Amino acid sequence: MSLRQLPKAVKEIRLHLCQSGASSAGVRQFIKSSYPALKEANPDVKVLIREAQGVNPRAFVRLERGVEHQASLDGLAEKDVASALSKLAGQ
């Protein structure tokens, strides 16, 4: 499954990251390069980006009926961030 083809059950994606921390570098790069295509392909899915100094990067995917899955993105490269989100969306 590609991030461009999210299942209908996915209602929201939240990304928590640090604006300057090295462990969030892959998440920042993912947002710069992949966010526009992700949002264009899934206009009904809310994508929330939360930045706070010193936080560990995490991803949250909310599915229908309020079911939520989360994963740590600490130190992951851009392609690994996409893979982690795909895995969360497919659970």
UniProtKB/TrEMBL annotation:
Gene3D superfamilies: Glutaredoxin (3.40.30.10). GO terms for cellular component: mitochondrial inner membrane. Residues 19-91 form the Ribosomal protein/NADH dehydrogenase domain. Keywords: Electron transport, Membrane, Mitochondrion, Mitochondrion inner membrane, Respiratory chain, Transport. It comes from the Eukaryota. Its main location: mitochondrion. It is found in: Mitochondrion inner membrane. It is a peripheral membrane protein. Accessory subunit of the mitochondrial membrane respiratory chain NADH dehydrogenase (Complex I), that is believed not to be involved in catalysis. Complex I functions in the transfer of electrons from NADH to the respiratory chain. The immediate electron acceptor for the enzyme is believed to be ubiquinone. Belongs to the complex I NDUFA2 subunit family. This is NADH dehydrogenase 10.5K chain. The lineage of its organism: Eukaryota, Fungi, Dikarya, Basidiomycota, Agaricomycotina.
